[in-house]
Design goal:
40% helix; binds NADP nicotinamide-adenine-dinucleotide phosphate; TIM Barrel; two-stranded antiparallel ribbon
């Protein structure tokens, strides 16, 4: 299983996302089973946010995780930009902790950039760290110029991760953001690593090269996309799975080993950008 170091902890490079979970009562039992299956398979990193279902995803997770030893998990939640102030952040954080049924988050992220100055958000994050309610903090949907601005702020470099959209069909960050993050030794959390499944994913399903490599490894195209996303050992992918089988398959993708020739073929077929692209966001 491919591993990544994040905030000093070594974790499996395949985690789980939770967007849209907990919103449909008819799907609740299967969603809880999916989360528990993922953890049994070995998943540690779980990504959620106060935004997801306005707390419903966190509440669902809280229920699913009741029986799981807390130290086995690496729990991430995110604060809305308009709640990322010194006054509001502690309130949002307490609500997230309560819904999740935990005393601390391993990582708390600013979900995207808003109007609260970075200085203030960093101060609020540092305070939360001191209180023991979060172990570390990071950001999401930050492009290179924004990371550089954050780096200028007092304690801004205490940020331990940037979570952005990244998949085989969306390699824009490889032009400048990812190289900059590598220079700073900042790991990446790749969201939408499956290009959101059906919408873009179909394009991959029809690709003879992906079909050939997947057949050679007796794996699915989705598993190939995940293996690709985490290939550098400094990235954690957080695919969203709706079924226990999908979550098991996704975790297993962390053990796929491709040949140098296959990596080369993929790189030629899906080249990295040669010019600056605007940051892809959802
Ligand atoms: N920070 C941010 O701003 C941000 C933004 C977007 C997302 N995220 C995080 O990233 C997570 C993942 O991103 P995402 O939800 O956009 O999309 P994604 O993980 O790229 O794709 C999810 C889709 O892939 C399908 N899928 C999952 N595993 C599969 C498998 N093994 N075989 C076939 N299909 C499979 C799912 O279908 P099934 O339901 O049938 O499994 C679902 O339709 C989110 O849940 C969220 O936690 C963060």
């Amino acid at each position: 299983m491919k591993k990544t170091i994040i905030a000093g902890r070594t974790v499996p490079a395949i985690g789980m996302g939770t967007w849209h979970m907990g919103e449909d009562p008819a799907r609740r039992a299967q969603e809880i089973e999916t989360i528990r299956t993922g953890i049994e398979a070995g998943v540690q990193v779980i990504d959620t946010a106060e935004m997801y279902g306005e707390g419903k995803a966190e509440s669902l997770l809280g229920e699913a995780l009741k029986t799981v030893e807390r130290s086995r998990l690496f729990l991430i939640s995110k604060v809305y930009p308009w709640n990322a102030s010194k006054k509001q952040l502690p309130i949002s954080l307490d609500k997230s902790l309560q819904r999740l049924g935990t005393e601390y988050l391993d990582l708390y992220l600013l979900h995207w950039i808003g109007s609260v100055p970075f200085e203030e958000t960093v101060e609020a994050m540092e305070e939360a760290k001191k209180s023991g309610k979060i172990k570390n903090w990071g950001v999401s949907n930050f492009d290179t110029s924004e990371m550089k601005e954050l780096w200028k702020v007092k304690n801004g470099k205490n940020c331990v991760v940037n979570e952005v959209l990244y998949n085989l069909g969306s390699r824009g960050i490889e032009f400048d953001l990812l190289p900059w993050m590598r220079e700073q030794n900042l790991p990446l959390i790749a969201y939408s690593p499956l290009a959101q499944g059906d919408s873009l994913g179909n394009r991959f399903h029809e690709d003879p090269l992906l079909q050939k490599i997947a057949a050679a490894h007796q794996c699915s195209i989705e598993q190939l996309l995940l293996a690709w996303a985490i290939r550098d050992g400094k990235t954690i992918a957080i695919p969203q799975a709706g079924t226990p089988q999908h979550v098991k398959d996704n975790y297993a993708a962390g053990s796929l080993v491709l040949s140098a020739e296959e990596w080369q073929e993929l790189a030629e077929h899906y080249p990295k950008p040669t010019t600056k692209q605007s940051l892809a966001v959802l």
